[in-house]
């Protein structure tokens, strides 16, 4: 424990604990109202209050999940670099991923908090800067061979000294980005947010006294530790393990890249072992340093205990072993890691959801859609001088089906649920793009007794552009968003340019620096969530309702759910279930679906190329993965994808979700 002196009266303790939450949320409000960039305005930021040792006293109530678990690392890095040389009015900046950060865009402003020349702690405001230099607009360079290709690495650096802004240092940083005015504005907004925290802490000191405030810093952390230990101690001991996948290592040929997570509960602690994940870094930027991996562990675990506040007390109970340095989950200098959030982070979180479903089945949830970033940058032909523009877009999508409920549709990613959906009007004003399509994608929810949430299809036309390129950071084009307990997968991610036209191009889910021209249509779907439970166990009336709502097509209702729906009057949304045909269809599927997963994969791929089977036939019926543009079979990927279905889906066929929650015959427990 951080402090043995917890003799605060209960009322004062509770007041101060909630005051610290309020202070961090005030910091967030300050950033939101004064930031310059559209990305940060869309709430891609977080804040923290730390003690004099850099341990977190409190995180904000609406922080980005990928930032939690990392802000204490960067605070400690500032302390280590400037030990003995920290003064009232100082402000520091850091984005170094090798010192506990996430990726270089996530830039932290750190201010020491003094009261009458005594250092009490630190306030930290973290924001995702839209660009930090590097080879491509937005600094998401898939082809980077090291971090120098991703942008500016800022080791702990002083930007205000004793209250005076070091303008030359700020200009140096901003001038190495594509949006220097935004960077200066965001830096000032973040610095002001930390000043709000400093003012509020000093106000509390004046009211309650310095000894009380210092005691409360440790007491709040101890409180979270004790509360977390009590919750863990009430659960059964054991060891559980699972794995998820990144689509591919571009430098090693096709084949899924494993992220393996083992969870051990012993007494009042929970420990995660990721050491058996892919032992090397991959030759794209979908790697994670220790900070990004730990953030995923913390965020995935914290979502099981939403009532517990988050600070360093939580980190004393939840621990992690990443194994040797140099792996995909424990990358070191100079490995590129800008895409960590779409790579290991998202896979670790969903694996943790699956593991906890074994322990608390009432909270079970299938896989959620993968975070994506579309970045288009170039010269804006609408403006004189063709000024530089950057358009930074991310999608909502579907969350996994839950125990007893369908998944949420068109929701922010688990990376950060509070991440705001950017208004199209704002995007169109700031960049030469015109949104032509944004609608729920039919059949995107993974089939199951409980259906995954719906994804979205979005298409934009480039209006007046010059020297413009597009980059895309995503995944699950091949390791498609999976179902749980018998549920089926969703749909792949991937970007198309000018679909259905003679100049159609399929770009996939991971690329950088692809040229665009005026008039190009860029479209992409977000996946839905995976299904939960055997889809043949879903109430036929609910499937019919999904058809009426436009969530499921009549064709997929029959193929995925075995429910035959007849159209009576589409204009009046009148449909009905053919119960006799449904009984026959479900009997037919039950008798054949295991054999369909064993059919020759190349034969299935050939039928796809010939137009006899569609994408969802391959994924959900046959477990076959191809290059979705050319139809070329991905043999290694298909073998791994089928093995995943045999583990996550096939053993649960024929069982209702209610029975699965009580049945221990199929389990991820290893000890």
TrEMBL record:
Residues 9-535 form the Hydantoinase B/oxoprolinase domain. One of its GO terms (biological process) is glutathione metabolic process. It holds the Pfam family Hydantoinase_B. InterPro entries: Hydantoinase_B, Oxoprolinase-like. One of its GO terms (cellular component) is cytosol. One of its GO terms (molecular function) is 5-oxoprolinase (ATP-hydrolyzing) activity. PANTHER family: 5-OXOPROLINASE RELATED, HYPOTHETICAL 5-OXOPROLINASE (EUROFUNG)-RELATED. This is N-methylhydantoinase.
């Amino acid at each position: 424990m951080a402090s043995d002196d917890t003799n605060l009266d209960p009322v004062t303790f509770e007041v101060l604990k909630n005051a610290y939450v309020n202070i961090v949320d005030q910091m967030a409000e300050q950033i939101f109202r004064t930031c310059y960039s559209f990305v940060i305005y869309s709430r891609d930021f977080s804040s923290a209050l730390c003690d004099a040792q850099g341990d977190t006293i409190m995180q904000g109530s609406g922080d980005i999940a990928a930032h939690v678990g990392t802000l204490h690392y960067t605070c400690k890095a500032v302390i280590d670099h400037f030990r003995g040389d920290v003064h009232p009015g100082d402000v520091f900046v850091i984005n170094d991923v090798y010192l506990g950060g996430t990726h270089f865009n996530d830039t932290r402003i750190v201010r020491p908090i003094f009261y009458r020349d005594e250092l009490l702690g630190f306030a930290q405001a973290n924001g995702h800067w839209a660009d930090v230099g590097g080879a491509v607009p937005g600094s998401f360079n898939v082809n980077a061979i090291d971090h120098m290709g991703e942008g500016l690495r800022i080791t702990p650096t002083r930007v205000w000294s004793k209250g005076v802004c070091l303008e030359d240092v700020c200009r140096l940083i901003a001038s190495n980005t594509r949006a220097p005015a935004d960077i200066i504005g965001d830096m000032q907004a973040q610095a002001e947010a930390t000043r709000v925290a400093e003012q509020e802490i000093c106000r509390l000191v004046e009211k309650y006294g310095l000894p009380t405030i210092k005691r409360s810093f440790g007491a709040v952390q101890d409180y979270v530790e004790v509360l977390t230990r009590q919750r863990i101690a009430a659960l059964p001991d054991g060891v559980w393990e699972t794995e998820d996948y990144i689509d591919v290592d571009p430098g090693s040929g096709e084949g899924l890249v494993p992220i393996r997570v083992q969870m051990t509960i012993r007494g009042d602690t929970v420990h995660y072992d990721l050491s058996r994940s892919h032992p090397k870094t991959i030759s794209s930027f979908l790697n994670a340093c220790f900070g990004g991996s730990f953030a995923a562990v913390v965020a995935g675990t914290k979502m099981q205990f939403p009532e517990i506040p988050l600070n360093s007390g939580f980190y004393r109970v939840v621990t992690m072993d990443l194994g040797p340095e140099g792996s995909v989950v424990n990358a070191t200098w100079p490995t590129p890691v800008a895409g960590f959030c779409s790579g290991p982070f998202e896979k670790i979180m969903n694996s943790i959801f699956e593991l906890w479903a074994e322990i608390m089945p009432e909270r079970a949830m299938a896989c959620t859609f993968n975070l994506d970033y579309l970045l288009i940058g170039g010269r804006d032909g609408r403006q004189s001088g063709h000024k530089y523009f950057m358009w930074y877009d991310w999608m909502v999508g579907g969350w996994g089906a839950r125990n007893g409920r369908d998944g949420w549709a068109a929701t922010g990613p688990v990376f950060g649920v509070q991440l705001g959906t950017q208004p199209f009007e704002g995007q169109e004003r700031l960049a030469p793009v015109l949104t032509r399509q944004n609608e729920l994608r039919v059949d995107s929810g993974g089939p199951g007794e409980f259906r995954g949430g719906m994804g979205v299809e979005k298409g934009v036309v480039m209006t007046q552009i010059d020297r413009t390129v597009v980059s895309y950071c995503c995944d699950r084009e091949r390791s498609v968003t999976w179902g749980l307990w018998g549920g089926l997968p969703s749909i792949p991610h991937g970007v198309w340019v000018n679909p259905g036209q003679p100049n159609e191009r399929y770009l996939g889910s991971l690329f950088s620096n692809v040229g665009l021209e005026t008039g190009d249509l860029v479209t992409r779907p977000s996946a839905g969530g995976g299904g939960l439970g055997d889809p043949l166990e879903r109430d036929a009336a609910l499937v019919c309702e999904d058809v009426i709502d436009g969530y499921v097509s009549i064709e997929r209702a029959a193929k995925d759910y075995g429910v035959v729906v007849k159209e009576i009057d589409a204009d009046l949304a009148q449909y009905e279930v053919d119960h006799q045909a449904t009984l026959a269809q479900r009997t037919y599927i039950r008798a054949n679906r295991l054999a369909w997963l064993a059919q020759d994969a190349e034969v299935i791929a050939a039928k796809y190329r010939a137009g006899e089977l569609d994408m969802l036939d391959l994924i959900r019926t046959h477990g076959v993965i191809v290059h979705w543009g050319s139809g070329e079979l991905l043999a290694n990927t298909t073998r791994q994808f089928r093995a995943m279905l045999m583990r996550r889906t096939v053993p649960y066929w024929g069982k209702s979700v209610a029975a699965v929650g009580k049945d221990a015959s199929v389990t991820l427990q290893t000890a």
